[in-house]
Amino acid sequence: MDELLARTGGFGWFQTHVGLALFALQASCAAVVMLPTYVSLSAQREWGTSSTTPMVQAFFAGQLVGFPLWGLAADRLGRKPTTNASLLLLATFSLLSFAATSPTSYAWLRLPVGLASGGAWIGQQTLGVEYCAPPYRILFYVISGLGWTAGEVYAVLLAWALSSAGWRTLLLLHLPVLPTLLLLHFLPETPRYLLQRGDAAGAMETIRRIARANGRPLDGKAALAAGVAADGGEGAEGWTRMLAQLLSPSVAPRLALVSAIWFGAAGSYYGVAFLKQDLSVFNPYVTTLLENAVELLSLLVLALIAEHRGRRACLALFFVLCAVGFIVLQVAQPQSTLELVFILIERTAASLVASLIWLVVAEVFPTSIRSVTLGLAAACGRAGCIVCPALTDGSFGGGFAVMAAITLCSAIGTLFLQEMTGAALSDTVSSL
């Protein structure tokens, strides 16, 4: 399959379309995820508090349940329909949350938002991996990461402009959903998924469509059909067979390892992502823009080194940098310039970790269970998202030290991962 995708032109017009769709999808998700921060700032007078912890924890609790369910749906029903359904539900539930009258009611209304968002995340990761040949997988992740940064910048600029207009005007943050749905509508199902469902003809037609869009029409129909059929021996998987695959000796230990690593990756990112409202010495909107500038730099670093130095080594290095940042934050004076500087440094390293972990996990599992394993591992990451912001919000004295220990353990765990840089993806468990 990877060889066939490479013959369609590598990264052409079709992959550009996919990249734009992933960019818009990440921008939509970023605006919705960061919404509680700006709602709490804008509604501070009305509600008497600017704390986002209950809102954030409710959202991640929803994702904790939603990720495995959407992952299972994506492997059984398809990448494209589950992504579209998730995005529609995400926008709907997020809009309904604006009916809240208090921080408590808003937090409860964020729960289904988190539940719905899981499919959008799972969908964009599997689409990015399955549409392109190995040399371009990191490029797709950088593009989607740029979408996340763009979504955060859009959110902070709009929230800043509307800060005196009432928090319900932040409904406008949902505008990126519209172009995202349009871009996703014109994408076909991924050929890898079609192949695993036993539709070799549909997979071949999608590959030809990609080739035509890239101006590289394929020749040799018989040879190509044989090449596709060779990858699709197992056909459709039933529920029982999927469970057996997840519990198999080649999958279960790997899933446990990446789940533990993801706990530290997601926790390190969101442990600092929501600190801006506590830096009362600084303008929180300016602080967010600085963080996004640093995050943009981190994506450029990721693009430059992850493909050449290897996923595993880069992930371990970024985790170590996270640990160093947390140690400094543990001893830095609160609301000091040093604290702000190291929050930005920590945000850089954590952003690299949070971006790369999705790619690593998507690559190490086969197509037949790629989405459900992503969902299960991401759910463990969301457990980290619930726990870690509570450790870093100042209510626990040694919280940053605990976070340093967690990220160091994650760094050690990455050394046991399979290196997938430039490697072909597996399509079945038997090929692991």
Description of the structure:
Helix 7 (103-130) packs across helix 18, helix 15 (284-309) packs across helix 17 and helix 18 packs antiparallel against helix 19. The protein has helices at residues 2-7, 13-33, 35-42, 44-47, 53-77, 79-96, 103-130, 137-161, 177-185, 191-196, 200-213, 221-231, 239-246, 252-273, 284-309, 311-331, 337-364, 370-392, 399-414. It is globular, with a radius of gyration of 21 Å. It starts with a helix and ends in an 18-residue tail after the last helix. The protein is 74% helix and 0% strand. The chain is built from 19 helices and no strands. Mean pLDDT is 81; it is low at 222-237. The longest helix has 28 residues, at 103-130. The chain is mainly α and 432 residues long.
Number of strands: 0
Overall pLDDT: 81
Structural class: mainly alpha
Proportion of beta-strand residues: under 5%
* Uncertain parts: 222-237
Helix amount, in percent?
over 70%
Number of helices: 19
Spatial extent as radius of gyration? 21 Å
Task: Give the oligomer, counting copies of the same chain as homo and different chains as hetero.
Answer: single chain
Distance from N terminus to C terminus (CA atoms, Å) equals 15 Å
The best one-word shape is: globular
N-to-C series of helices and strands? HHHHHHHHHHHHHHHHHHH
Taking the sheet with the most strands, its summary is: none
Subcellular location: Membrane
Transmembrane segments: 12-35, 55-73, 85-101, 139-161, 251-272, 284-306, 313-332, 398-417
Domain Major facilitator superfamily (MFS) profile: 1-422
InterPro entries: MFS_dom, MFS_sugar_transport-like, MFS_trans_sf
